[in-house]
């Protein structure tokens, strides 16, 4: 029986999503991330761009599966931290400016 490589890609993507979500204690101290309500408010008030706008400006393929999204303060600038699974099965973490 031939192993299904997509299972490994999905497993790797989930591990990356968990890392992005929980990170390390040091990361938690260094970054302050918004909750979903805060993200919606920041987008509505124009403080940050919408996820769609950031993905489009970042050249992210529209067919990519979004696994996890966070908006965090990284050294005084707001960034989207996005875990994606591309159409070719590659899991990637992207850090894109939210402004």
Description:
The chain has 99 residues and is of the alpha+beta class. It is 40% helix and 28% strand. The protein contains 4 helices and 4 strands. It has helices spanning 5-22, 25-30, 36-44, 51-57; strands at residues 32-33, 65-74, 77-85, 91-97. It has a 4-stranded antiparallel β-sheet with strand order 1-2-3-4.
Given the helix and strand composition, which structural class is it?
alpha+beta
Question: How much is the radius of gyration in Å?
Answer: 15 Å
Order of helices and strands: HHEHHEEE
Oligomerization category of the chains in this entry: single chain
In DSSP terms, counting alpha (H) and pi (I) runs of 4 or more, how many helices? 4
Shape: globular
Strand content: 25-35%
* Fraction of residues in H or I helices: 40-55%
Largest sheet: 4 strands, antiparallel
What is the mean predicted local confidence, pLDDT? Answer: 80
SSE arrangement:
Elements (H helix, E strand, L loop, with lengths): L4 H18 L2 H6 L1 E2 L2 H9 L6 H7 L7 E10 L2 E9 L5 E7 L2
Antiparallel strand pairs: 1-2, 2-3, 3-4
Quick description:
This protein is of the alpha+beta class. It has helices at residues 5-22, 25-30, 36-44, 51-57, and strands at 32-33, 65-74, 77-85, 91-97.
Offer a few descriptive terms.
globular; 99 residues; single chain
């Amino acid at each position: 029986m031939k192993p299904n490589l997509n299972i490994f890609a999905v497993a790797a993507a989930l591990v990356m999503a968990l890392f992005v979500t929980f990170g390390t204690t040091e990361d938690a101290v260094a970054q302050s991330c918004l909750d979903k309500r805060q993200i919606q408010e920041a987008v509505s008030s124009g403080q940050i761009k919408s996820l769609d706008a950031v993905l489009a400006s970042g050249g992210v393929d529209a067919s990519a599966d979004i696994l996890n999204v966070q908006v965090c303060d990284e050294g005084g600038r707001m960034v989207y931290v996005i875990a994606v699974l591309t159409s070719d099965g590659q899991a990637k973490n992207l850090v894109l400016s939210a402004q």
